[in-house]
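Exam prep: given the inputs below (a chain plus iron/sulfur cluster), describe the expected output before reading on.
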Amino acid sequence: MKAVSFGGGVQSVGLLVLAARRVIPYRTFLFANVGDDSEDPATLDYVRDVAQPYAAKHGIQLHTLDRTTRAGETETLWGRMMRQGSRALPIPVRMSNGAPGTRGCTRDFKIQVIGRHLRRHGASAASPATVAVGISLDEVSRAANRRTEPYERVTYPLLDLGMRRTDCQKVIADEGLPMPGKSACWFCPLKPLSAWREMRRDRPHLFLRACSLEEALNETRIWAGKGNDPVFLTRTGRPLAEAVRKAQDELPFDVGCDSGWCMT
Ligand code: SF4
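Solution:
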């Protein structure tokens, strides 16, 4: 089995165009949706309105995969955090010093979801699936950090082709497709301050929800006995509403991660 791990961002869509042009030999793309309430709404719109129809037109299967519980219900990352009585802090919240905490979100909502699909379709340690990941030349260090699971062999077609993020943008534009945004959960604490500022300006309703989430996570942390030290969604050591407003002219060199998500 051969499949592309599709995140819905620039590099993933670049791979989709390359597959449609038969530059790379992949006809199956797997999109692990962390939840309709968790994935960036712009990414969900792009996958539904642009990527899906484009893939279908070119005979490519683009599967959207949800995490399901043993009872067969869909579980979302937001839902896990907001469940009444939840003790879960699955996202990489920032400590007072700005360092991200441990996270289970990438493993549970992306790696395991894609892994289950691959294994259901025959992938195993004895017969691993080939999984292509959209890492471009300008973020090559991410390839070194990516763990390989026993049931997969990971390939990096963009590295093999020597393509950078800008090359992917050119391929997408040449194909006449709109440019996708950053693919990540809209509340991801790995998001750079510049992206939080854009959210506050352009999507204030989401920003307000993120502020509420930050408060809820701190309540969960205290309730779960994980300490009284506050945690944050930015690396500033300040509550989101305060940090983003005050940081607007303070941190011009803030770059953070580009694609923002966990690159599975
Ligand atoms: S984008 Fe951020 S919050 Fe979402 S799964 Fe990845 S690391 Fe976790």
